[in-house]
């Protein structure tokens, strides 16, 4: 066999480093960064092997929102599924800017993954991570399906493992290796930021890869996905019990509550709790102090609204049940509760729990399929979740929960090396319980005292739906917040937020258990509020 050329040897070393087989020596990693170019970008195609498919390695010219960069896509261990429009293998997308800041961001996914989201590292209302000079990586979670709500991959063991955590681990090490290969040195700082499934992945990164990330931002995290799916079945059963029947005797969940009734509840909650923070402004900041019971809306009750808006006793009890979260017959909490807030009047809440006229709610489609194809072991494609038994059938979700749910509370290694964690949660989230993530945060270690921690902070977002939207100031820059905390030691004691629902208004997001309270002055300016 002839000896290897220098170029061939270099490619082998680069590939081995990229695949995480070994790390570059510190002396090599410490060398100045080499600027990525169209030629070096095209050269990444040489990494292709039978088990490492390079899907793209293209130079992208600068635009108004993104700098010139190399777009690299690859699929690790690609394989067929035997199911139409579904394939397996960990897909990654890595964008490498020509002018690199020395930072790497892992952009979390969404839904059930299964699609390759562009790795820009978008921040709602602010410049993207890529535009700030970050290299940004994303993954499809180990499978490619019809959409981000295609749960059919759940019948495959390896695909479950990939979605649960292995795709994140593999993509992290792959991205770091590629960055080192292209720029000639390791990233100075590595971050993870995501919402929903991306939030679950972010918490997994802190829990299962405690030495890989310097800062993690987890938003509206579906961190205990098996319990979320279980809770969706719980809500579905509760609404089904009171839903009017159509001509064929089938329950029509869309008619269980009218829009007027839901808005009546939202208005009543605002009337009761809006001013608890010192200012009636359409946003309930002090949700923990809010005491509202939908029984107050029952027709005929004192101060209840009139016909068409008031609730029947059955409707009021159903809202109590749904907002109280899933429980077994002994009354034990299986998931977490939801605060009454303005989100109940949103189309997002209706879409999740009731559905539009003539359609099914997400609880009866996405929630159903997630429970029976992914959460339950073995997968049970024909299982009727209207008959899910919350005493007995929860055992059928424990195997998936063990590999998937990011519920670990011991983060001593993560925090011990100086890494920081920011968690945020919309208080009007239609699917994910603010009570559940708050309970997790209160148990996470290390802990030095009650209140905001010196390495981990939880920011409730009043009025915000799932990741964005709602009667809220839902635009805020958590990437800058985590960056300042990690690199400058500036802890986020408040994060300024704005939102399209309230043009010209700003509000502080406060670290739990602090609450934004009006101190006087311009009611539209966040500086008129104190976190206390």
Describe this structure in words.
The chain has 532 residues and is of the alpha/beta class. Helix content is 30%, strand content 15%. The chain contains 14 helices and 14 strands. The protein is globular and about 75 Å long.
User: What is the terminal separation in angstroms?
Assistant: 73 Å
Order of helices and strands: HHHEEEEEEHEHEHHHHHHHEHEHEEEE
Described by strand count, sense and barrel closure, the largest sheet is: 10 strands, mixed
Mean pLDDT comes to 93
Q: Tell me the overall shape.
A: globular
What is the count of β-strands? 14
Strand proportion, as a percent range, falls in: 15-25%
Keywords:
two-stranded antiparallel ribbon, ten-stranded mixed beta sheet, 30% helix, alpha/beta, 532 residues, Rossmann fold, globular
Task: Give a brief outline of the structure.
With 532 residues, the protein is of the alpha/beta class.
Question: Topology, please?
Answer:
Elements: H1 6-18, H2 26-29, H3 38-43, E1 52-60, E2 69-80, E3 87-97, E4 103-107, E5 135-139, E6 143-144, H4 157-183, E7 189-195, H5 197-208, E8 215-219, H6 225-242, H7 259-273, H8 313-324, H9 347-353, H10 366-375, H11 398-404, H12 412-416, E9 420-426, H13 434-443, E10 456-461, H14 478-488, E11 495-497, E12 507-509, E13 516-518, E14 529-531
Parallel strand pairs: 4-5, 4-7, 7-8, 8-9, 9-10
Antiparallel strand pairs: 1-2, 2-3, 3-5, 3-6, 11-12, 13-14
Helix pairs in contact: 1-4, 4-5, 6-8, 6-10
């Amino acid at each position: 066999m002839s000896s290897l050329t220098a170029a061939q040897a270099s490619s082998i070393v680069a590939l081995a480093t990229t695949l995480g087989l070994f790390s570059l020596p510190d002396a090599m990693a410490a060398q100045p960064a080499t600027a990525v170019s169209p030629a070096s970008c095209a050269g990444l195609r040489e990494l292709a092997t039978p088990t490492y498919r390079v899907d793209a390695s293209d130079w992208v010219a600068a635009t108004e929102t993104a700098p010139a960069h190399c777009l690299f896509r690859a699929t690790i261990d690609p394989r067929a599924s035997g199911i139409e429009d579904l394939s397996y293998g960990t897909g990654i997308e890595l964008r490498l800017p020509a002018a690199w800041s020395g930072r790497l961001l892992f952009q979390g996914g969404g839904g059930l993954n299964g699609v390759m989201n562009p790795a820009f590292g978008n921040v709602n209302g602010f410049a993207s991570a890529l535009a700030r000079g970050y290299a940004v990586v994303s993954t499809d979670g180990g499978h490619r399906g019809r959409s981000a709500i295609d749960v059919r991959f759940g019948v495959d063991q390896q695909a479950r493992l990939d979605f649960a955590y292995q795709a994140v681990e593999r993509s992290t090490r792959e991205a770091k290796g590629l960055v080192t290969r292209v720029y000639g040195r390791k990233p100075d700082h590595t971050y993870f930021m995501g919402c929903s499934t991306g939030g679950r992945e972010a918490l997994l990164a802190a829990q299962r890869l405690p030495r890989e990330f310097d800062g993690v931002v987890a938003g509206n995290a579906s961190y205990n996905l098996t319990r979320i799916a279980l809770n969706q079945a719980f809500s579905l059963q509760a609404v089904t019990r009171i839903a009017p029947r159509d001509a064929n005797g089938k329950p029509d969940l869309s008619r269980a509550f009218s829009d007027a009734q839901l808005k009546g509840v939202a208005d009543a909650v605002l009337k009761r709790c809006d001013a608890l923070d010192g200012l009636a402004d359409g946003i309930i900041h002090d949700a923990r102090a809010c005491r509202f019971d939908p029984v107050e809306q029952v027709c005929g009750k004192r101060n209840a609204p009139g016909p068409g808006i008031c609730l029947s006793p059955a409707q009021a009890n159903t809202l109590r049940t749904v907002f109280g979260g899933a429980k077994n017959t002994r009354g034990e909490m299986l998931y977490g509760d939801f605060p009454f807030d303005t989100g109940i009047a949103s189309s997002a809440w209706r879409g999740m729990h009731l559905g539009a006229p003539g359609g099914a709610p997400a609880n009866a489609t996405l929630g159903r399929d997630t429970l029976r194809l992914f959460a339950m072991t073995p997968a049970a494609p024909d299982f009727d979740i209207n008959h899910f038994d919350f005493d007995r059938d929860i055992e059928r979700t424990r195997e998936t929960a063990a590999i998937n749910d990011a519920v670990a509370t011991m983060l001593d290694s993560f925090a011990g090396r100086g890494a920081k964690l920011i968690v945020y949660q919309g208080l009007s989230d239609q699917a994910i319980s603010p009570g559940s993530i708050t309970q997790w945060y209160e148990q996470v270690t290390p802990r030095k005292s009650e209140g905001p921690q010196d390495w981990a902070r939880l920011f409730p977002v009043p009025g915000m739906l799932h990741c964005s939207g709602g009667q809220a100031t839902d635009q805020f820059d958590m990437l800058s917040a985590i960056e300042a905390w990690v690199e400058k030691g500036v802890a986020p004691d408040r994060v300024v937020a704005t939102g399209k629902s309230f043009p010209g208004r700003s509000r502080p997001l406060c670290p739990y258990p602090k609450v934004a309270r009006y101190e006087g002055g311009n009611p539209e300016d966040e500086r008129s509020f104190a976190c206390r």
